[in-house]
Amino acid sequence: MPLVRPLDPSHSPETAELAKFFNETLGFCPNSVLTMQHRPAISKAFINLNKAVMANEGRVTSALKRMIAWVSSNATGCRYCQAHAIRAAERYGAEQEQLDNIWEYRTHPAFSDAERAALDFSLQASQVPNAVDAEIKERLYTYWNEGEVVEMLGVISLFGYLNRWNDSMGTSIEDGAVESGKQYLGKHGWEKGKHDGSVY
């Protein structure tokens, strides 16, 4: 069982209405949000922040944002968020070659230099201690503008919150996310880990 049990989706009508957003992104309301409902102000604030961060403002595509989220979650080791991020990347139109080779983004030809800079930024910003430096700044600004960098860091920061939330909670992972995790990440050893619903 997770550290705190998720509540029924109908527990907070306002949260339930906002959470329809996740039916598009994932195909289900995540257990992380259902757990946040124990304090509805947190679940509502989180959903609204998620919607703002993931809004498509231009060249940082919805698919790239989810791949940025995957790199961040991989760096911190949250298997729950890894599976969610790769599932959302698929649902938002990431190329099949990118999904199949996300672990090799630095060298695989399916990724552009601009995408590599964004994904390296995610990796460096997600480390402790933080590894963002002048070199990554220069690479970022070769391809992206300030607003786009803010969008990227919004995704990285949002998933920093989610990684800590879900790994600390041992949030039970949903069947759909398990399918995506096995399909795209299984060859590199992805498994449910503490998110199988029986750890705590």
UniProtKB/TrEMBL annotation:
Name of the featured protein: Carboxymuconolactone decarboxylase family protein
Matches recorded under InterPro entries: AhpD-like, CMD-like
PANTHER family reported in the protein's UniProt record: CARBOXYMUCONOLACTONE DECARBOXYLASE-LIKE DOMAIN-CONTAINING PROTEIN (PTHR35446:SF2), SI:CH211-175M2.5 (PTHR35446)
Record-linked Gene3D superfamilies: AhpD-like
Pfam families, per the entry: CMD (PF02627)
Domain Carboxymuconolactone decarboxylase-like intervals: 40-120
Superkingdom classification of source: Bacteria
